[in-house]
Amino acid sequence: MEVATVSGQVSDTELTLSFEAGKLAFQADGAVVGRLGDTMVLVTATCSRSVREGIDFFPLTVDIEERMYAAGKIPGSFFRREGRATDQAILTCRLIDRPLRPSFPDGFRNEVHIVGTILGADQENPHDVLAINCASAALMISGIPFDGPIGAVRVAYSTDGTWVAHPSYQAGDESTFELVVAGRALSDDPDSDIAIMMVEAGGTERAWDFYENGAPKVTEEVIAQGLEASKKWIRESIELQRKLAAKAAKPPIENIALFSDYQEDVMARVLEVGKAPLDEANKITDKKERKIALDEAEAKIIGQLAGEFEGKESQIKAAIRSLTKRLVRERIVNENVRIDGRDTTTIRPLSSEVGLIPTAHGSGLFQRGDTQVLNITTLGMPRMNQLLDTIGIDDSKRYMHHYNFPPFSTGETGAMRGPKRREIGHGLLAERALLPVVPSEEEFPYTLRLVSEVLSSNGSTSMASVCGSTLSLMDAGVPIKAPVAGIAMGLVYESGIYTTLTDILGAEDAFGDMDFKVAGTRDSVTALQLDTKIDGLPAEVLAQALQQAREARLKILDVMETALSTPRDEVNLNAPKIVSIKIPLEKVGEVIGPKGKVINMIQQETGADISVDDDGEVGTVVIGSKDSGAVEEALARIELIINPPTAEIGATYEGTVVNLTKFGAFVNILPGRDGLLHISKLGSGGRRVERAEDVLDVGQKIAVTVDDIDGAGKVSLVLVEPLDGSGASGPTSSSGSRSDSDSVRSSSTKSEYVSFEDEFERGLVEEFGDLGPQAENSDERSQRRSDGPRSRPSRRRNRR
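The chain above was modelled as a monomer; its predicted structure follows.
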């Protein structure tokens, strides 16, 4: 097969977007390698040639294979190979699926499999949007029936108020908001308008800091401008895909049949006998009663028509569903009345509550109509951050939100075997909505895990999870920047009329033409997700939907504030009390000690949990415990290590023997301060001691006097009282002067003392290596002996 390549400059950037077909994976129906910068993605599209028996839906599957070699890494798992898909990979799958699925013809039942393999990840250009464009391009050349192309772009809102296309990871982090937008052209005209198909958006981690420094906030008007701006870059991708298809498209796959859920005669009879009972059932406002009435009406219709259409019960059911959808939509457009009796702008009854779980660090219950979500916040030490093994630039995650959707929440039975893609996607959406208001680690040195338990579902549990998260965080004492609420909007387009719905039900989501979720504070948007099923969304309709969503969000925030208006002043009694301090990089080794001796001893003696890390420039010590007294004690001990008290020449101290060597003993006299008691000074009455172990034990308490402190800060000690044969010394002298017996030495002892400095240096070098002037205590010397020379401390020393 001939290789076809197309490329084009991305407007307003220095990037080039390219597509190549015909070189790799040529047995797939369609295969395209896309490149943006040095990020490369291979996406294949394959279609089955037959339809599985009994299937009544379109089986589209999207998989993303993130290969660690793309980023020059080896997987960190035990087996050293890639395992289950990461959250980012699952989110990318959903980003591809959502705009592609509506672009296949109605009645298409052949299985289609889209596989994206990340070949190169340059740590600058994200691969997710590139994968969307490559998936569309692969379908365009595959011969699979597909109403494309679909173009996609990520745009970032910079701190100076401009939208930047295809930002790098680093540029995205420096922006306040990011939009991922996918759409298709309304015609083959290069200048035709772009119909927005999908939007995934959220504020960045530093957005609030940028706002406080004067960056413009992301409002509903800014969002609308961003969607309009994105159309230029979407159009460029679409044109590039059309050029590729002109060069490499395969002929349409033969014998593709399109299926109808029901025949026209079946629909005619269902309309005749079922319209009245279905219409009456849909006027019942209570969900359970309405479902019972609809089931009874369906059973009655099937009973009436089963004999007439023998063997076509599935068609009768499909026709009943189609008629129900039509009746619901017509009532909304013509009468401005929805399934549960509300008008188009009314929110269902709201309630909020906090502090439900006594053992939890924070808990919040949010309910909107029949949708009920309980959120739990758990606070932990920074070492509990989630470690990420991905091909992106992030290696850890401090703030996590997990979403659980059990079958009982809809009154059904079902298997529970871990989170599905939908649950992961909903959890990440709610997580993204709160990210801009979560305090930084410097402000609040905790790891945060939030869990949303969906207890009852009837529309927009993801936005209820946003509201529950805010309540739970404030109940836990997390100083969030502002409360965040979310609302789900819908749209019905019928007979040329656009009707926007506030707070949609589950049925309205299924029967409507748009699912539009918006989360934010009182004055800015923090997250957004939009999916449409129609070609094009007029700007005025989008503006109305955004304004309606803002009005609803403000009402929800009012109700939430009746439960708790601001974060609690302190963290919950059950949560750990954590303090974080910065220390000089050269002090990191002293705090840890050789093989963790110092830090472990402090943890054991105080009961506090301590972690130490550094960024190559400064060290960070985090201390945590449920007992605030333990935190204070550990902090005091670490501060003494960082800023140890200074020994004074002539002062007497009761010290502790911490190390014995062949040239003497190291004695700790002050926190973080050791001195050398040379072996020449251990004997009494002129007697020379051959080994320090003969007269001293590690851990022994002895009284010593500071004899000298040299220019490098090394402390020389002498005994206050001579040691007896057992190693015990006499009583501690209260003065800073030496005893008479200690001041009288033999000539041999004096000659040994004269050479003390040389022997001291030789002994240190022989025992520990050349340390230079920084070594001030035996802990640091032992650290260097065990670890060897190093340019800077390890980044992960806090593992016990």
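The two ends are 58 Å apart (CA to CA).
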